[in-house]
Amino acid sequence: MLDYIADHPDPAGVSLKDIARGLGLHKSTLLRLLAPLTDNGLVLRDAERARYRLGSHAAYLGGAYLERLDLREVARGALAGLAGQTGHTARLSIREADETVLVDAVEGSGPMPVRPRLGARHPLHTGTAGWALLARLDDAEVARAEKAARLAAAGDPASEVVAEELRAAVNAARRHGFAVEDGTAGSGVLSVDAPISNHDHAPVAAIGLSGAMAGSAQSASVSSLGTLVRGAAHEISRALGARAGRAGVADGGAHLGTHGPAGHPGSVAVPNGSGRPSSRGSEPTSQHPAKEAAHVDRRQVISTQAAPQPVGAYSQAIVAGGFLHTSGLGPHDPVTGRVAGRTIEEQTEQTMRNLASVLNAHGLDFSDVVRATVHLQHLNRDFDDFNAVYERHLTPPYPVRTTVGADLANVLLEIDMMAVLR
């Protein structure tokens, strides 16, 4: 109930009727539950408007929790778990201005343990910890990092290539939820990092692994290492106050796309030591890899950090039978996780941007869409204004469409689409 009240977009609060409808509870039950919350200042009731919003005591409790947090202490268990599970060295880096600083590490038991120096500083544009953090920052920050990379390579004819490779590494980290350097440039060390977010959903740190590229009995594929690191970052972010499925905080149990840019089942695009993309296939997880590959070919999961992350048992999109099928997407901001906009026009605009991001993750756009299903909270009131925004994003011939009224929780619309593959 507190989450529902906190997530409601209207700063004036939410009515008892809306809470009851959104949570599927009777009003009498809600009134009984709300009484101790309002008595203790966690919820404030505006008697004149008969609406509820978070009270000041909620801020006090949140502040008290955050004041007692120690990032190293919170992450220590995750570091030890990663090192023990993989044999690689687990690292924790924080962001300070335009640098990353290594603040903790747990050495792995592999044949070539990496012994990082605590306190070591590196520019954001170098190394997977910096790339992972940049992946959660806006394009202006990435552009600053590219400029720094060019300046660092001043006098080198390949300085522009360095900036392009940085952009490729950051984009790959945005797609997968983790950054990778595969060591083929000569270091022989594989590094994987994922970003950690705080309660404001700002990227404040990165957790990662470093170890030998191959030769260890405990060595794992890039995709499985990335999934482990991403899951650890997700849990630490939750401990720091970031909401699950918000702000691009990756779900530790989410699957990567089963086809990488090279088109191989289970492959994932990773930058090498110079930031260039390469392909490294994932190891089979079945005793019948050929049979498993045939299954993967029929269904491919599409996942992108540029759209809201799933908060239930569903994928953002699935490719199957020659089509891409999206889940129903609403007007949630991919970074903050909150509903963007109050009007139907604003929420439709954000929803269409989210759908475009999912389509773009598989190289498609709205011209490839053949069907759309639209759910409107207020069908008669909002249809014309919704349709005007929707139409701006499409060109004739328009896809077929079904528009229905629906009882939606906390949003004015939801849209799912089906697009034909190219």
CATH superfamily descriptor of the largest domain: GAF domain
Alpha-carbon Rg, integer = 23 Å
Low-confidence stretches: 215-220, 245-297
Return the structural class: alpha+beta
Mean pLDDT: 80
Describe this structure in words.
This protein is an alpha+beta fold and 422 residues long. The protein has 3 domains: 2-67, Orthogonal Bundle (Arc Repressor Mutant, subunit A), CATH 1.10.10.10; 71-281, Beta-Lactamase, CATH 3.30.450.40; 299-420, RutC-like (60s Ribosomal Protein L30, Chain: A). Helix content is 36%, strand content 22%. The chain is built from 12 helices and 17 strands. It has helices at residues 2-7, 16-23, 27-39, 56-67, 71-86, 128-135, 139-152, 159-176, 222-239, 289-298, 344-360, 379-392, and strands at 14-15, 43-46, 51-54, 89-96, 99-106, 121-123, 179-181, 189-197, 203-212, 267-271, 277-281, 300-302, 317-320, 323-326, 369-376, 400-405, 413-420. The chain has a 6-stranded antiparallel beta sheet, with helices on both faces. It has a 6-stranded mixed beta sheet with strand order 12-13-14-17-15-16. A hairpin with a 7-residue loop joins strand 7 (179-181) and strand 8 (189-197). Helix 5 packs antiparallel against helix 9. It starts with a helix and ends with a strand. The relative contact order is 0.09.
Strand and helix layout:
Blueprint: H1 2-7, E1 14-15, H2 16-23, H3 27-39, E2 43-46, E3 51-54, H4 56-67, H5 71-86, E4 89-96, E5 99-106, E6 121-123, H6 128-135, H7 139-152, H8 159-176, E7 179-181, E8 189-197, E9 203-212, H9 222-239, E10 267-271, E11 277-281, H10 289-298, E12 300-302, E13 317-320, E14 323-326, H11 344-360, E15 369-376, H12 379-392, E16 400-405, E17 413-420
Parallel strand pairs: 15-16
Antiparallel strand pairs: 1-3, 2-3, 4-5, 4-9, 5-6, 7-8, 8-9, 10-11, 12-13, 13-14, 14-17, 15-17
